[in-house]
Design a protein that fits this description.
Layout (H helix, E strand, L loop, with lengths): L66 H4 L13 H18 L11 H19 L3 E3 L10 E5 L7 H13 L6 E5 L9 H7 L3 E2 L2 H9 L3 E4 L4 H4 L16 H9 L3 E7 L9 E2 L1 H7 L5 E2 L19 E4 L16 H25 L6
Parallel strand pairs: 1-9, 2-5, 2-6, 3-4, 3-5
Antiparallel strand pairs: 6-9, 7-8
Amino acid sequence: MADAKVIPFDDDRSRGSGGNGGNAAQRPPRRRGGGSRRKGTAESVPVREVQPLPVRGPAPDDAPVTSESSGAPEPGSQGPDGGGLERRIAGGLAFLRRRLTGDYEVDDFGYDAELTDQVLMSMLRPVYEKYFRVEVKGVENIPAEGGALIVANHSGTLPLDGLMMQVAVHDHHPAGRHLRLLAADLVFVLPVVNELARKLGHTLACAEDAERLLGQGELVGVMPEGFKGIGKPFGERYKLQRFGRGGFVSTALRQGAPIIPCSIVGAEEIYPMIGNAKTLARLLGFPYFPLTPTFPWLGPLGAVPLPTKWTIQFGEPIPTDGYPAEAAEDPILMFNLTDQVREQIQHTLYKLLVQRRSVFF
């Protein structure tokens, strides 16, 4: 990885840019409890013979009561959710056993599918569903199989938009596909963040890794604006920055993978960036040090994002498999395709902003 050629997604690349679950156990069949009829005894009475009364069917109240007819579970039987808790506990224990014994797999990039499905996605999902209340549109434009490149706008001071896009693809796509994000090299030098990013399937934004993932039929995500996108002032929100020199287009052309534009509304307002402490950023080795209405004035509390309402829309794919092999080296073609993707994302952003009722609702 150290010798990988970095895609020039933006001018800041010199600094960096930025379930396998088993089959559920079947519920054991319920025992059918038969109701018992009470038998009476007849006494002989010395009376004259009488005609028998007409036979009638049993009244509803006379029907034998069973566990099924009464709705009450039999002693020792499981209720509607019976076994669900036990299965979850058993699955959790099995997961811990595999973690402790090392009986799990990661790919060459460090992606851990089981950990992502069972732990990391479960941690991100409440933020996605309850906090940002993300609405997803156009997920049917993502192919069910094969390599594809999703290109999205980047914003929000911190790259939470990439994580929310991962959850959107994983939870809403009919095939439950995993999105492999190309991340800035800064991500892979930060402690803890580096390991979590690898487990989630992120990899360095370089041509070799991107082409390899697409060649394996993976769904790859890239945000070409890089740090210029997430670090722009609040006054320039939803105005796309440069998309670099078209490195992502060249990668898609080499693999014949479709390019899917993605527009994200809502991330711009989670940390309104009203200033940038450039001196402090240089001392810390960061591309910028944000100043927001709450950070750093409120301390750790200021790092809590505002609960904005998000919309993620995936546009119609732009095919690249019809171009000749040498098209990846044609600068005019790359410029035209890059501009087409950028314009489609920008147009969709304006459309979603017009449709939005409020930043928070």
